[in-house]
Amino acid sequence: MTDTHYSLDDIRLRLNELDNELLKLFSERRKLSLDVAKSKVKTAKPVRDPKREQQLLVKLIENGKDFDLDAYYITQLFHTIIEDSVLLQQEYFQNLANPDLSRKPVARVAYLGSKGSYSNLASRRYFSKKNIELAELGCENFKEVIKTVESGHADYGVLPIENTSSGSINQVYDLLQHTSLYIVGELTQKIDHCLLTTTETSLESIKTLYSHPQPHEQCSEFLNRLNNVELISCASTADAMITVKELNSPEVAAIGNSDSGKLYGLQSLITNISNQTENQTRFIVVARKPVDVSEQIPAKTTLIMSTAQDAGSLVESLLVLQKYGINMSKLESRPIMGNPWEEMFYVDLEAHLKSDAMTSAIEELTAITRYLKVLGCYPIENVEPTAIPLSN
């Protein structure tokens, strides 16, 4: 239909028709993915079947050659489709395992900052996949997020735990040491830092820059190139944007997300100012009660422990994990307040809490550590792309 005798309007009309047909096909495919999940309830098969996924991609790449579609295009497209299918099936199993939670039409969620903060964006993204309406509760700091959930004023709290550029967020780790809450979920959010202003201005005109301390760290290389600019910390990126809006001056700017900036009438002066091109933050979701995780889906278990002060005590604990073939994806140490030179270790393990390996490992760790507590077992929601042979 792209011959030159067709008008641009005709071509666009046909594109719209094709897009609508694609939407119908995507919807039909999603329904079939749920049917697959329902069939797996009886067979107890895991959600992911890497061998089948690989075979599917190889076949699609080969078939795509007949339609002049390159391998990269097909791979990117179907990685997204497979990820959606996996998360959809995981959510189905989680609803079966936690029927009381699945019946809740509204969730009260506490997060850092006002609407438009990165924590707020992460909250919306996480719960949008669960078809739950949000009652949003912005908080001034991480401690308030924890207390709001502990007191029952919120059902969930969303907290950033680590960033690919600035590393671990120590304040959150320290709070987890004392809270009674459980980790019930996680997600990774792409962070797009921009320089936001109320009016058209120049970089040379900026005298004051507002943001949360984390974006200051994540954009340090860009900030170091600025001359005579005062950096002022705010409770969140949203609070920084609110401040810049109220000041309404060509000499002030905020660091934040461009879409969030539009909520406050701000425009992007400069985009992509992070130190790393792939700037991502991992968030955890906390609640007063733990969730049951279906053994058919990939799970992560987070625990905290303190070891004896003897040489090799930590190594002895890690050897227990190696003994049972449990992969450790994160190890973080934080000082124990009131106990000089003693450390609390936070460990993320890619294993289900109820698996035989984890049951045995925790039993042995309890015997050789001074303190051990499971902070939560929750679904792994970062779906790794399916690998395909390089020859394809």
UniProtKB/TrEMBL annotation:
Q: Which InterPro entries match?
A: ACT-like_dom_sf, ACT_dom, Chor_mutase/pphenate_deHydtase, Chorismate_II_sf, CM_dom_sf, CM_II_prokaryot, CM_P_1, Preph_deHydtase
Listed GO cellular component terms?
A: cytoplasm
- Give the Chorismate mutase domain ranges: 2-93
Task: Enumerate the spans annotated as Prephenate dehydratase domain.
Answer: 108-288
The alphabetized list of GO BP terms reads: chorismate metabolic process; L-phenylalanine biosynthetic process
Where would you find this protein in the cell?
Answer: Cytoplasm
Give the GO molecular function terms. Answer: chorismate mutase activity; prephenate dehydratase activity
Annotated PANTHER family: PREPHENATE DEHYDRATASE P PROTEIN, PREPHENATE DEHYDRATASE-RELATED
Q: Which purpose does this protein serve, as stated in its record? A: Catalyzes the Claisen rearrangement of chorismate to prephenate and the decarboxylation/dehydration of prephenate to phenylpyruvate.
Q: What is this protein called?
A: Bifunctional chorismate mutase/prephenate dehydratase
The species this protein belongs to is Aliivibrio fischeri (Vibrio fischeri)
Source gene?
Answer: pheA
